[in-house]
């Protein structure tokens, strides 16, 4: 993922295995807000979270684990 600031607008969403891969948006906001929301989710949910910018997508766990 390209270097971005914590103020960039992003979409935080969850891909569910149970719903055939349906994407559910948790938040449209800043990266800082998304990281807070994602960290508050249970581990099972965190595994399916993705951060989307205008030109990239990365899994939440890959982002926080660097």
Q: How is the secondary structure organized here?
A:
Layout (H helix, E strand, L loop, with lengths): L8 E7 L7 E8 H9 L3 H4 L2 E4 L4 E3 H6 L1
Antiparallel strand pairs: 1-2, 1-3, 3-4
Mind explaining what this structure looks like?
This protein has 66 residues and is α+β, with helices and mostly antiparallel strands. Helix content is 29%, strand content 33%. The chain is built from three helices and four strands. The chain has helices at residues 31-39, 43-46, 60-65, and strands at residues 9-15, 23-30, 49-52, 57-59. A four-stranded antiparallel β-sheet has the order 2-1-3-4. It starts with 8 loop residues before the first strand and ends with a helix. The mean pLDDT is 89.
Summarize the structure.
With about 70 residues, this protein is an alpha+beta fold.
Q: What does the main sheet amount to?
A: 4 strands, antiparallel
Using only CA atoms, what is the Rg?
A: 11 Å
Summed up, the helix count is: 3
Which regions have little confidence, pLDDT < 50, spanning 5+ residues?
A: none
**How much helicity do the residues have?**
25-40%
User: What are the secondary-structure elements, in order, as H or E?
Assistant: EEHHEEH
Question: What is the overall silhouette?
Answer: globular
N-to-C terminal Cα separation, in Å? 10 Å
User: What is the residue-mean pLDDT, rounded to a whole number?
Assistant: 89
List keywords for this structure.
66 residues; alpha+beta; 4-stranded antiparallel β-sheet
């Amino acid at each position: 993922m390209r270097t971005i600031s914590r103020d960039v607008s992003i979409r935080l969403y969850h891909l569910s295995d149970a719903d055939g891969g349906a994407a559910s948006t948790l938040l449209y906001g800043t990266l800082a807000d998304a990281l807070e929301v994602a960290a508050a989710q249970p581990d099972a949910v965190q595994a399916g979270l993705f951060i989307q910018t205008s030109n990239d997508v990365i899994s939440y766990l890959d982002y926080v684990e660097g």
